[in-house]
What we know:
2 domains
Amino acid sequence: xxxxxxxxxxxxxxxxxxxxxxxxxxxxxxxxxxxxxxxxxxxxxxxxxxxxxxxxxxxxxxxxxxxxxxxxxxxxxxxxxxxxxxxxxxxxxxxxxxxxxxxxxxxxxxxxxxxxxxxxxxxxxx
Length: 126
């Protein structure tokens, strides 16, 4: 027998049954999406599934600005994009992106040349 789940004192149901029902819902959703994609292809809106997926992902990012920020942070933290490129991906200014990083607890490490080297270059140009 499966585990019973409780929420605010009420028994929700058998855990195994809930997982099975959730799995069925996911399968129903997958079948529904496949059917819709097939209809779009049959109607000539798209020539292949890749185009449908590409358009869906573009729409997803257009409708959910937070996803753009999450992607920008992830790419920046991996070192795959610069700070300014990450800000562009997030749809904010570089200063705003720095603030977002700070609010989320990220710190930036800045590499600098030794002061003596920088002073020597400055004297060279003055």
